[in-house]
Write a sequence for this structure.
């Protein structure tokens, strides 16, 4: 049988129990967090930190108030403050505690954001007591809004730039492509979820795909700005385009900028072809110049032959055909000598110089 505690022991225990409320009261008063007590949906007590946060000088000014009375009429989500406060307190009573964000109003009318933690002390129907802790999250919200604004600004820049932009993570998954990427290639994000999908669709030829993949691999081994590379790709509509790729490789991210250089490449090819043909035409002109002298000699000897043959000679009609061919050759050399512009025509599925249009001589 246990010994009965002595009078001194009982007195010591009573003293300790009396100290508990006093310790909690000290914590309540000295806490840097705003602490309030809600009893039956009304504030019945608060600590100095709560008064400072709200800007009240006297505790009696805010006691017996419903939480919605020191809030704007509606919360940031558009819901009525009174109705939403009732719901929040109901969740705390039901679950034992509840944490959420709220907009409160200071004594001077200023609206500010707080993080609210409600903890139920008593959940009796006629006597509900809720311990409330507020934390001012103004700086956190400002930082979140600043990050959101930066994100929106970056998104605006990415969507307005006249270049395709793609972001790919370290595993080769496409995280983002802008609208101009889709405009250039026709591919949306769901068409190319990974770089493997991109390579298969953009480079259907296996040899071409291998070269592009090797270039990617070589550049990815050197963090920072990769080389500017040009590749011919297959677009979603089946057409081909020349694309200049400028890539930046970070630790776990690749940013690739695409520029459509198809028109430039076609112009360069056209100028190269014209330069090549111009050289051929100049050579043809020189050849024609050299041919002109023997052609004149042939014409002279032909005229002498005609003088010695009568129209009744059996070879006269055949000799006349020689004159036709001499005249034809003469016209060709004249046109080649007088070419002033570059014109072509189709001939047996090929492009050849159209002498009639290219020459000023329209004979």
């Amino acid at each position: 049988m246990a010994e009965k505690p002595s009078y001194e022991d009982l007195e010591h225990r009573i003293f300790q129990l009396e100290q508990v409320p006093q310790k909690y009261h000290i914590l309540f008063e000295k806490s840097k967090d705003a602490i309030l007590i809600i009893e039956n949906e009304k504030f019945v007590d608060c600590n100095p930190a709560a008064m400072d946060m709200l800007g009240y000088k006297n505790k009696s000014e805010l006691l017996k108030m419903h939480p919605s009375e020191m809030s704007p009429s509606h919360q940031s989500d558009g819901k009525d403050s009174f109705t939403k406060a009732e719901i929040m307190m109901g969740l705390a009573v039901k679950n034992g505690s509840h944490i959420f964000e709220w907009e409160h109003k200071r004594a001077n009318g200023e609206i500010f954001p707080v993080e609210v933690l409600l903890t139920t002390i008593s959940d009796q129907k006629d006597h509900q007591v809720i311990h409330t802790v507020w934390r001012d999250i103004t700086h956190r919200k400002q930082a979140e809004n600043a990050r959101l604004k930066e994100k929106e600004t970056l998104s605006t820049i990415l969507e307005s730039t006249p270049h395709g932009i793609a972001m790919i993570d370290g595993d080769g998954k496409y995280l983002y492509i802008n609208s101009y990427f889709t405009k250039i290639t026709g591919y949306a994000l769901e068409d190319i979820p990974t770089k493997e999908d991109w390579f298969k669709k953009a480079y259907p030829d296996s040899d071409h795909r291998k070269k592009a993949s090797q270039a990617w691999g070589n550049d990815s081994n050197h963090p920072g700005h990769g080389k500017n590379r040009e590749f011919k790709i297959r677009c979603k509509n089946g057409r081909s385009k020349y694309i200049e790729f400028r890539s930046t490789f970070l630790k776990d991210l690749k940013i690739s900028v695409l520029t459509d250089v198809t028109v430039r490449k076609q112009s360069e090819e056209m100028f190269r072809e014209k330069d090549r043909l111009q050289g051929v035409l100049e050579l043809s002109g020189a050849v024609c110049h050299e041919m002109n002298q023997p052609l004149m000699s042939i014409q002279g000897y032909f005229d002498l032959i005609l003088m010695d043959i009568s129209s009744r000679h059996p070879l006269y009609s055949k000799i006349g055909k020689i004159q036709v061919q001499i005249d034809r050759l003469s016209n060709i050399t004249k046109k080649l000598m007088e070419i002033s512009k570059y014109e072509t025509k189709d001939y047996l599925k090929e492009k050849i110089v159209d002498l009639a249009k290219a020459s000023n001589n329209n004979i």
User: Anything to note?
Assistant: The two ends are 140 Å apart (CA to CA). The chain has ten helices and 13 strands. The chain has three domains: 16-141, 161-260, 264-358. The domain at 161-260 is CATH 3.30.450.20 (Beta-Lactamase).
